[in-house]
Amino acid sequence: MVTGDAPALPPVAPPPAAPPSATLTGRHPWLSVLWSAARTPRGVVGLTMALFVLLVAVIGPAVSPHSPDALMTLTFAKPSSQFPLGGDFLGRDVLSRVLNGGWLLLLMAVAATAIGIVVGAAAGMSAAYMRGAPDGIIMRTVDVILAFPQLVFALLLLSLLGPKLWLIVLAVGLSHAPAVARVIRSATLDVSERDYVKVAELQGMRPAKVMTKEILPNLISPLMVEAGLRLTYSIVIIAGLAFLGFGQPPPAANWGTMINENRIGLQLNPWAVIAPAALIALLTIGTNTFTDAVARVTIGVDRRPEEAAMLDDLGPEQA
Amino acid sequence: MATATAPAEPTVPAEPTVPERNEHPLLLLTARRLGIGVITLFVVSVIVFWATEVLPGNAAYAVLGRNANPARLHALERQLHLNQGLLAQYWTWLSGLFTGKLGASLANGQPVWGLVEPRLINSAVLVFVTGLIGTVIGVTLGAIAALRKDGWFDHITSVAALTVTSLPEFIVAIGLIILFSTVVLHWLPAVSLLPPGTYAWSQPELLILPVATLVIVIVPYIFRMMRAAMIEALESDYVEMARLKGVPEWRIVLGHALPNSIAPTIQVIGLNFLYLAGGVVLVEYVFNYPGIGQGLVFAVDNRDIPVIQFIVVVLAAFYVCVNIGSDVVALLATPRRRIPR
Question: Disulfide-capable partner of B101 in A309, B96, B303, B317 (CB 3.0 to 4.6 Å)?
Answer without folding.
Answer: B96
